[in-house]
């Protein structure tokens, strides 16, 4: 039957340009392009994952301290605080005024502002 794919042998080995190849197992250009597209997509996804891992590891919460001053100095030492101005402002603003527990732990904290608490 014309255009039908057969599971056996007996093809002439030529590629008719059909979408699925012929019975001899020849691969069409479309199949190669499709495979390359999937491969490139996978590589791009892996690059994104590696980038995110690098960012997460760089931002790992490893700068905590026993005091406000120690926390801020550790943040600077580990490259989280990069400018003198940010360092000065952070040093002047004690987290214990805003965080309920573990204010000097280098991790996200729930913020409670004394100004906003006076309205409740």
From TrEMBL:
Region (Disordered): 1-22
Subcellular location: Cytoplasm, Cytosol
Keyword Phosphoprotein included in the entry's annotation: no
Entry GO MF terms: protein-L-isoaspartate (D-aspartate) O-methyltransferase activity
Coiled-coil stretches: none
Record keyword Transferase present: yes
Catalytic activity reported: [protein]-L-isoaspartate + S-adenosyl-L-methionine = [protein]-L-isoaspartate alpha-methyl ester + S-adenosyl-L-homocysteine
Enzyme class, broadest EC rank: transferase
E.C. number(s) listed in UniProt: 2.1.1.77
One GO CC term, this protein: cytosol
Entry keywords, A to Z: Cytoplasm, Methyltransferase, S-adenosyl-L-methionine, Transferase
A biological process term (GO) from this entry: methylation
Gene3D superfamilies recorded: Vaccinia Virus protein VP39 (3.40.50.150)
InterPro entries referenced in this protein's UniProt entry, alphabetically: PCMT, SAM-dependent_MTases_sf
Assembly and interaction partners: Monomer.
Family: Belongs to the methyltransferase superfamily. L-isoaspartyl/D-aspartyl protein methyltransferase family.
Function in brief: Initiates the repair of damaged proteins by catalyzing methyl esterification of L-isoaspartyl and D-aspartyl residues produced by spontaneous isomerization and racemization of L-aspartyl and L-asparaginyl residues in aging peptides and proteins. Acts on EIF4EBP2, microtubule-associated protein 2, calreticulin, clathrin light chains a and b, Ubiquitin C-terminal hydrolase isozyme L1, phosphatidylethanolamine-binding protein 1, stathmin, beta-synuclein and alpha-synuclein.
PANTHER family membership: PROTEIN-L-ISOASPARTATE O-METHYLTRANSFERASE, PROTEIN-L-ISOASPARTATE(D-ASPARTATE) O-METHYLTRANSFERASE
Stated name of the protein: Protein-L-isoaspartate(D-aspartate) O-methyltransferase
